[in-house]
Amino acid sequence: MRMTRRCLLGVLMGATLAMGAPVAPAAAQGRAPLVFAAASLKNALDEIAAQWRRQTDRKVTISYGASNNLIKQIEQGAPADMFISADTDWMDYGQRKSLIKPETRADLLGNRIVLVTPRDSTVSVSIQPGLDLTAALKGGRLAMANVDAVPAGKYGKAALEKLGAWNNVKDRIAQAETVRAALVLVARGEAPLGIVYQTDAASEPAVKIVGTFPEDTHPPIIYPIALTKESTSRDAADFLTYVRSPAAQAAFERQGFTVLAPGGKRP
């Protein structure tokens, strides 16, 4: 059964408040646009939204989560005005289902995936073909976002398979709903190792990077952006333009993202 826009928006606003995102009136009331964005974008987008509000005196509400969950919520009637995915697969899904406006779609950012440990760990790992994480795990589990659906988990699994490490760890994965949740497991010492985005690792002082996965071990990490088909918010279109502008570029780069040139190419 499809949820009403008003009912679902209330649920999403509650979730957004819990994550500390900017508070704004509902897009359904014709005020602030609602953005659904990959969890790994939180630090950068929160900064950009605050900057947008200072410069324009206009608000935006952002709800963060796993890209697969967000697009499925949009499919079920969630009143999002904009979708920013952590991979092209889920944006492709949205386009096939006619959930986005294809003419507004663009490849926005690039990222890297890294192997992290708790800050005080003495583990040393060399990421190369023949990688075996068994000894480094010391009986613990490898924290990852869901490897079948969440972009960061899919990238991580692909890299482990390419390096010949997957079969040795596939039964020792602590799968999380989002990449940020996987990061928390490592930061709290509940997992000795984790695979997260480079940008996530940089935002968490309780972890350290012990290796970066070569880019040729997984599909390119690309964050596409688009307005949803149902959006009629002028502010949403203006915010999309702002997110793609030089004004927002510095915030993304401070968090470690690569801002893609037109056509999705790295500068």
What does this structure look like?
With 267 residues, the chain is α/β, with parallel strands linked by helices. The chain folds into 2 domains: 5-110 and 222-259, D-Maltodextrin-Binding Protein, domain 2 (3-Layer(aba) Sandwich), CATH 3.40.190; 113-217, D-Maltodextrin-Binding Protein, domain 2. The protein has 11 helices and 11 strands. It has helices at residues 5-18, 42-56, 67-75, 88-96, 134-137, 151-162, 166-169, 179-187, 198-203, 234-243, 246-254; strands at residues 34-38, 61-65, 82-84, 106-110, 113-118, 142-145, 173-176, 193-197, 207-212, 222-227, 258-259. The strands form 2 sheets. Strands 2-1-3-10-4-11 form a 6-stranded mixed β-sheet. Strand 1 (34-38), helix 2 (42-56) and strand 2 (61-65) form a beta-alpha-beta unit. Helix 2 runs antiparallel to helix 11. The N and C termini lie far apart (45 Å).
Share of residues in helices: 25-40%
Largest sheet geometry: 6 strands, mixed
C-alpha termini separation: 45 Å
What overall form do the CA principal axes indicate? globular
Which architecture of the largest domain does the CATH hierarchy give at level 2?
3-Layer(aba) Sandwich
What series of H and E elements makes up the topology? HEHEHEHEEHEHHEHEHEEHHE
In the residues, how many domains can be counted? 2
| CATH hierarchy, class of the largest domain | Alpha Beta
CATH superfamily of the largest domain: Periplasmic binding protein-like II
Number of helices: 11
